[in-house]
Amino acid sequence: xxxxxxxxxxxxxxxxxxxxxxxxxxxxxxxxxxxxxxxxxxxxxxxxxxxxxxxxxxxxxxxxxxxxxxxxxxxxxxxxxxxxxxxxxxxxxxxxxxxxxxxxxxxxxxxxxxxxxxxxxxxxxxxxxxxxxxxxxxxxxxxxxxxxxxxxxxxxxxxxxxxxxxxxxxxxxxxxxxxxxxxxxxxxxxxxxxxxxxxxxxxxxxxxxxxxxxxxxxxxxxxxxxxxxxxxxxxxxxxxxxxxxxxxxxx
Length: 251
Ligand SMILES: [Zn+2]
Hints:
Helix content is about 20%, strand content about 30%. With about 250 residues, the chain is of the alpha/beta class. Strands 6-5-4-3-2-1-14 form a seven-stranded mixed sheet. Strands 7-8-9-10-11-12-13 form a seven-stranded mixed sheet. Helix 6 (about 195-205) links the parallel strand 11 and strand 12 (about 210-215). Zinc ion (ZN) binds near residues 59, 61, 138 and 159.
């Protein structure tokens, strides 16, 4: 399983990269986890837009889903012909929400380009991946992902405050791709996002192999994000920062 970070900027795109989007590849299948603001541009450095097999959206915040709009344009209006319809997995109401985002009538909305599938907690297969989903601790319905292939495991937090379900989802994962939106300081908003230290705490409790911090908000100094996670000594594995274009081969 190969993971390519397309975008890892938290809450809004940064000067050097888009908001959340990760390309997962195995057995020639290409799955996008999230498609946040600006991601369709950078994605083209790594894959053709007609070469994506499925998209899975963690939640409906703009920085995780709104580039479905330019993706729909590209797949619908290419003068060489419309691209094949592909599944787009997401929370309840994704088809309606994306139609509204582009100002389309809800029928057909984007359904001629995308087969919208509503996610629920539990297990499902997406291409060659075995995917386990759980609700995270965020103000709108949000799914975290555990993606398994050939005995290797990636866990992805999406957006979440402190969350026991994330520890379960990341249990002994090879890689925990975990949001670290906040630095330590006074009164971070509860039930919204994690500090870097909280991300490390979740990784330690899960027994994850390595922690990659993501959803890095442009107003933070990311050296401090990394330092604050590393100071949490109970996580003994490697900790690093996601970066646009970074490739992680798992297994
Ligand atoms: Zn969010």
